[in-house]
Amino acid sequence: MDKKGAIAVAIAMAVMIIWQLKFAPKPTPPLPQPAQASASASPAASAAPAMPATETKPVQPTEQAIAESVQKVTTPSAEYAFTNLGGGISRAVLSKYPAENGNVTMNEFGSLPIGAISERAGEAATQAYTVSAKNSEVICERTEPNGLQIVKRFSLPESTKNTEEYSVKLNVDFMNRGAQTYQSSGWFIYVGSAAPIHQRDLPMFTRFIWQRSGKASNIDVNWFSAGRFPLLGFQTRPERPVYAPTASVDNLDWAGVRSQYFTTIIVPEQMKGNALWATRFPAKSETRDLLAVQGAMGLPGFSLKPGETHSETFSIYAGPTVYHTLRKLGHGEEAALDLGMFKPVAVFLLNSMNSLHSFLKSYALSIIVLTLCIKGILWPLQNRATASMKKMQALQPKMTELREKYKDDPTRMNEELMKLYKTYGVNPFGGCLPMLIQLPIFFGLFAVLRSAIELRGSHFLWVHDLSQPDTIAQIAGIPINLLPLCMAGTNVWMMQLTPKSGDQTQQRMMVFMPLIFLFICYNFASALSLYYTVQNLFTIVQLYVTRSQTAPVLQKVALPRKKKP
């Protein structure tokens, strides 16, 4: 292997190793609990009573050993548990979405309730409120020693409309009942926590998210880890226990947390946030320790004279990441899905997939038909690309002669190669055009198929859930995912049929592409591997069709004459 080939192989292997180190799911050692208030006990996810119910249980002792009181209220789509410690939603069980154990639970492992508030981040769970519920409204009240009375009114959804069934309105009133002016320098409202729903969810999907001036950003749980140099392993930076940017983060539209398919977002309706805070913690599991994240958004302070009231209103969404539902909320919440730089393409493909599903009643069939439609549209371009590659293949002997003749003069060699292309009318980049066009489609579908909750629970042949890897067995603890293996096999088959073009270094690099894609897609949703496998099979059929066509004959083309001066 020459020097260039060795470099190409090294780059390919480095990409695979770094990808696995960064994104592959693996057992994680327990992390120390962040410095924050005591965790409140988790309410049971049993069938909800018809009327609000109250249960009292001891929690870890605080300074005054306050007992936790949990009040549950049921809506058509969820069961909300309100805790007196922090005066917020300690848990929200989504009755329409099953999980591996029971139903999906928002803020399942978090110690900071959704909608809790405090002057300093991380201290909400020790504040005791009185909680009362009537129909779909829950009121949490507390009076501080300085006479500041806090009244929070949660209005729970009564409708089953998509845009309303997981939306909670929160009104917070600060009333100064004391004799002195109350001055707030700022305060935090908590967005709860997010943890992986499935045992094998990739850590990169568990994120703290926010939007500032219409632009969404996020960090995942890997942000908190100590930085290490790939392969060598030495530490480049220490572990970061808390995300609390000191630079200006004013004009925040909203903040939240999300797992792969579910999110909690809090939107202040009368002002903009001006600070962020987040930390990660271990969420205990039966098989391994999962990493969870919880956070808060900071809000500007205010001043209250005796007898004055300051009010704020918030919208809370705690539910599935359905793109069109989030978009209709009206504050840019759909950005929580992170559909990437080709978002318009991704949205179009998502709409197309859902439209096909409306009459095919199968997301697997919808993906297959959508892939067939895409390949049909690109068929003429693929034919032209294949013809161009065949011409390049026929030109290879002449190109080899030039490379050998001018091997000591790269500049002259490139000039002669360009003359050769012009003489025979060959476009050296003609085979790349379909690939360039398919890149936005591939990355758009990549974003959709890894994030679309519509795929969750969809079956296909041996695949039990298109949103998860299609593991059929485990060997020595290593999962055997069949569809990615089929994808890699069809990739190799397709490469054997594709006319060889380019120099030897490029050809060596292409040999490793199936392996690279196998590593990238191996632990992602099986829907992505299904799409890519079907696309490969359609491409193979097309290559067999074009293979039977007459081989191109190299002919010199008439070059335009130069005009006389």
Any overview of this molecule?
The chain is an alpha+beta fold and 565 residues long. It has two domains: 322 residues, Distorted Sandwich (Beta-galactosidase, Chain A, domain 5); 189 residues, no CATH class. The strands form six sheets. Strands 7-8-9-10-23-19-18-13-14 form a nine-stranded antiparallel sheet, with no helix packed on it.
The outline comes out as elongated
Helix amount: 25-40%
Q: Gyration radius, to the nearest Å?
A: 29 Å
- CATH class of the largest domain equals Mainly Beta
Structural class: alpha+beta
Q: Average pLDDT, to the nearest integer?
A: 78
CATH-defined architecture of the largest domain: Distorted Sandwich
| Contiguous helical run count | 10
Report low-confidence residues grouped into runs of 5 or more. Answer: 1-13, 15-63
Number of strands: 25
Q: Which fold name corresponds to the CATH topology of the largest domain?
A: Beta-galactosidase, Chain A, domain 5
Major β-sheet profile: 9 strands, antiparallel
What is the total domain count?
A: 2
Question: Which percent range describes the beta-strand content?
Answer: 25-35%
Alpha-carbon distance between the termini?
A: 51 Å
Spatial strand sequence of the major β-sheet:
7-8-9-10-23-19-18-13-14
Please specify the SSE layout and strand pairing.
Layout: H1 3-23, E1 53-57, E2 68-74, E3 78-83, E4 88-98, E5 103-106, E6 117-118, E7 130-134, E8 137-143, E9 148-155, E10 167-176, E11 182-183, E12 186-194, E13 207-212, E14 215-220, E15 227-228, E16 235-237, E17 242-243, E18 252-258, E19 262-268, E20 275-283, E21 290-300, E22 303-304, E23 309-320, H2 323-328, H3 343-360, H4 363-405, H5 410-424, H6 433-451, E24 471-475, E25 478-481, H7 482-497, H8 504-511, H9 513-521, H10 526-547
Antiparallel strand pairs: 1-2, 2-3, 3-4, 4-5, 6-12, 7-8, 8-9, 9-10, 10-23, 11-22, 12-21, 13-14, 13-18, 15-16, 17-20, 18-19, 19-23, 20-21, 24-25
Helix pairs in contact: 1-8, 1-9, 3-4, 3-6, 4-5, 4-10, 7-9, 7-10
